[in-house]
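Help! Submission page says 'invalid entity' but I think these are all valid:
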Amino acid sequence: MGNEIVPTTEYRASKKKRRNIPLLPYLFLLPALLLFFTFDYLPIFSAFYYSFTEYHILSPAEWVGWENYRALMQDTKFWIAVSNSLTYFLIIVPLLLTVPLFLAILVNQKLRGIQLFRVIYYLPVVTSMVAVAIVWKYLYHPAGLLNAVLQGIGLQKEAVNWLLNPDTALPAVAVLEVWKSLGFYMVIYLAGLQTISQELVEAAKMDGAGRLRVLWHVYLPQLRPTIAVILVLSTLASVQMFTSIYIMTGGGPFDSTLTLPLYIYQKAFVELDMGYATAMGMVLWLILMVLTVINFKLSNGGRVG
Amino acid sequence: MNAKRKRMGIAIARKALMYLLLLLIALLFVGPFLWLLSTAFKSNAQDVFTFPPDLIPKPPVWDQFVEALTVIPFPKYLLNSFILIVVMVPAHLFLTSLTAYPLARMTFPGRDLIFYAIIGTMFFPEEGKLVPLFIITQKLGLIDSWWGLIIPGLVGGFSIFLMRQAYLSIPKELEEAAILDGCGPFRMWWSIMLPLTKPTLAALSVFSFISVWNSFIWPLIVLKNDDLYPLALGLAYLSGTFGDDVRVMAAGTVVSLLPIIVFYLMMQRYFVSGMQGAIKG
């Protein structure tokens, strides 16, 4: 019953001429459908076409068959971008699956003023990535706060230039990305936690289950749909990283932080190589599709179980 | 008695520890913003990179705010973002509620197909279609104008999905009574159904506000003329040219963050309700 569509209205006018197809609903839909067609489906379908062309905006697109894809396979920078994107994925997704759950459990307690903490933890989510990336760039500065703290508590002898060192730049950007979205996933987990039946939790406690066992055997199985949502959303976000990298490193040093979206941007809008960039966009979709299918399998389609 | 008191003592200690933990985590989230705020007010005589971090500006100065608002075209970028919001948020709400209505409350051939086609757009992430979208926008002559920012961003699968959920939860009896009273379809939508979806409309306007205010990639691609830049793009542009002047950049960043943070604190209850509405659906 829950998700069934509410029985709909039939107007007198349409009752009289029941056989005719009613015009009215299409009138409501027309503006949006035009927009979706022009700015979603047209780009999606023309992407297939442009990925097989050589196109530099000024001259008409020229059909080149598989040439772009062939060139992609031999483009080392492309493979670096793909492998970086996967590294971001492997760092970011596990963190966003676990830490926000811990935060959600923490702010789901009945404590005075707990709402204030929820508001604070969510704050970075609403701020613009450009602004926080600028702030974090200064925090990562050799003379910045992070180095000062690490040296101050003796964890580090010399200042590290986090964003200019090919070994640390990628994790540094990933940490910012995680920090910014922890609150978002915490709220999703909170909504999931509120659907868990308290009776089950109480029953488990009566049977003498400790905290960890309650978490593992009661919370996690019931959070399955929530976890599936988070898996899909965080995967999408991690593979699409752009703004943080654009601001903090521009893809460097030595392409160590370059991602596929950033490389697409450079090819299309700096070098104006539209066909090649579109072919990369197709690969990006393919990667996302494969990851989503894997996620879906892993989370058992989000069924409670 | 003693055991009871002891237990109470433990409970209080545990509570105190819990608050300590909550506060420490809160510090991780607001720390960068606090550092930014203190840097923005520090004078040139005070080192901004020290340990232990010296957060109190001695004395606090306004100079870099004056500089950020006069030397750099910050007010222009702020104004651009405000104009875009005033145009885009209402237009987005209007189109979303118009589109979701028949999908939730009318039967007609192709309804489910259209619904899935709209929802399906969410599965093609922006960055994969960035280039062909640019090509089409360019062919329509919308490049380097606000129309190129506004028109492609007017509808979205996610908002229509949320709005449809809101219409679906309205009881059918209400509609029947209105029809008996001779209410026509457009009035039914505008004056009966729409007011009943206010919580969702509020949540949607909040999401829409945030996304317009923070939008970056699309403006970056569409706009060449920096007179048209919205705030986030303007800020990025400035960090390229004024990046070495930490204090001025900090002041500018504070100015860019302030409206959105105030807006968030005012509207925060709609964030949670909106998010939960999205998940329940």
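Support: the input was valid. A stray whitespace character was the problem, and the output above is from the cleaned input. Residues 80-302 of chain A form a domain with the MetI-like fold fold (CATH 1.10.3720.10).
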